[in-house]
Amino acid sequence: MCGIYLSNIPYADEEVKAKLNSISFRGPDYIGIEKVNDITFGHLRLSILDLEQRSNQPMVFENLTIVFNGEIYNYKTIKKELLDLNYFFKTESDTEVLLIGFKHWGKAILDKINGMFAFSIYNADTNTLFSARDRLGVKPFYYYWEDGKFEICSQIKPLLAGKKINDEAISIYLDCMFIPSPYTIVETVFKLPPGNYMEIDLNNSTLNIGEYWNLKPVKILDISYEDAKKELHTLLLDAVKIRLQSDVPIGSFLSGGIDSALVSSIAAKVSESKINTFSIGFDNPEYDESKIAEQYAKILNTTHKTTICKPSDILKLIPKLTDVYDEPFADSSALPSLLLNSVTKQYVTVALSGDGGDESFIGYEHFDSLMQNKKIMDIPFILRKFIAHSGILKLFGMDSHRIKNALNTKGRNDFIENIFSRKGFLLMEKKQNYMKYYQDYKYWSSNFLQKAADLNIKLWLENDSNVKVDRASMAYSVEVRSPFLDYRIVEYARSLPMHFKYEKGRQKKILRDILKDYIPEEVFNQPKRGFAVPIGDWMRNELKEEFLEALNDDFLNKVPNLNVPRFKRLLQEHMEHKEDHTANVWKLYVLSKWYSEFGFK
Question: Where does the chain bind L-glutamine (predicted)?
Answer without folding.
Answer: 94
